[in-house]
Amino acid sequence: MNIGEAAERSGVPAKTIRYYESIGLVGPAERSENHYRHYSDVDVATLRLIGRARRLGFSIEELKNLVALYRDRGRASADVKALAQLHIARLDHKLAELQTVRAALADLVERCHGDERPECPILDELGAA
Q1: Alpha-carbon separation of residue 2 from 10, 85, 92, 114 (angstroms)
Q2: What is the CB neighbour count within 10 angstroms for residue 89?
Q3: What are the residues whose beta carbons fall under 8 Å from the beta carbon of 83, sequence distance 6 or more?
Q4: How many Å apart are CA 102 and CA 108, to the nearest integer?
Q5: CB neighbour burial string for 23-37, b if at least 16 within 10 angstroms, e if fewer
Q6: Which residues, in sequence order, are bridge partners of residue 38?
Q7: Which residues, including other chains, have CB under 8 Å from residue 89's CB and lie 6 or more apart?
Q8: Tens of pLDDT along the chain (129 residues)?
Q9: What gap in Å lies between CA 120 and CA 111, rounded to an integer?
Q10: Which of 17, 25, 93, 100 ranks highest by number of CB atoms within 10 Å?
């Protein structure tokens, strides 16, 4: 199938497929006589895995590890689980940071009168040294 069909079946845009190919996340596609890319069902399955993992927030480096594990039929599921657990730990850390930022911003919003006066604790705090 061509890149458009592979994109449609995998849910990964053609431009993104080309990018993944350029960074080595997926191998170069087979080329037909007219030099068009040709993708197999295995390629589409790999792209689908990448697309789903990307939507779950896995980084490109993590995706490389996931794809390697996906292709390795001798893999241990413990390796896949460890990678997913590490990703969860990173997400938890990011969530904690976001909650701290949200609390700080909510405090500033609470202190702002939001009326016609020019005084604004939000701007004062953001502009403070």
Answers
A1: 12, 36, 39, 56
A2: 10
A3: 62, 65, 66, 69
A4: 10
A5: eebbeebeeeeeeeb
A6: 30
A7: none
A8: 999 999 999 999 999 999 999 999 998 888 878 788 899 999 999 999 999 999 999 999 999 999 999 999 999 999 999 999 999 999 999 999 999 999 999 999 999 999 999 999 999 999 987
A9: 8
A10: 17
3-state helix, strand, coil in the chain (%, to 5): 65, 5, 30
User: Which amino acid belongs to residue 11?
Assistant: G
Read off the pTM. Answer: 0.79
Tokens of 19: 């990018």
Q: Which two tokens stand for residue 105?
A: 């911003």
DSSP string of 28-85? PPEE-TT--EE--HHHHHHHHHHHHHHHTT--HHHHHHHHHHHH-TT--HHHHHHHHH
Tokens of 25: 């996340």
